[in-house]
Amino acid sequence: MHIATCMDGKTTKGVVTMKKAPTVVYTYAKCSTCRRAVDWLESRGVAFEERPIRETPPSPSELKTMLGYYDGEIRRLFNTSGQDYREQNLSARLQTLSEKEAIALLSSNGNLVKRPFLLGDGFGVVGFDETRWTELFKE
What we know:
The protein is an alpha+beta fold. The chain contains 6 helices and 6 strands; from the N terminus they run βββαβααααββα. The protein has helices at residues 32-43, 60-69, 83-87, 90-93, 99-108, 130-136; strands spanning 3-5, 11-13, 24-27, 49-52, 117-120, 123-126.
């Protein structure tokens, strides 16, 4: 017999069923692309948790997970067309930042993060590309 501690902290004996991580989408309310992405998810009946990216940016752990889906290309996680990106001159600075420094910047300022920022069980994607999202959510 196996004894395990589940994600909810309870200890169980015997068969353990793992709770799937929820699909989380970080959005900005004034972003039309984010609204389209949320509408797309809702119209397909996808269960997800929406989080406001400016008030609660992705955690360093979530950013590192996403970075893994983009083969370590940290620039792909940045909102390169945003005002904060331009004001901080990140186009020039980004190549000199360490991964740790870039993750710290992103996790402290949601305006710097490309949105929508979608993380689910075994996948992650930034930006809304309907074709790509359709592939992710094939049944």
